[in-house]
Amino acid sequence: MTLAALLTVAGLLTMGAVSPGPAVLMSARTGVTEGLRTGFFLAVGIGLGAVFWAALALSGLAAVFRIAPTLLWAFKIAGGIYLIWMAVQMWRHAADPLPDSTGLPPRSALSAFRLGLFTQLSNPKPAIVLSAIFIGTVPPGTPLWLLICLLAFLFTVETLWNTIVARLFSLPATRRAYIGAKATMDRSFGGLLALLGAKIAVS
Question: What local confidence, expressed as pLDDT, does residue 101 receive?
Answer without folding.
Answer: 47
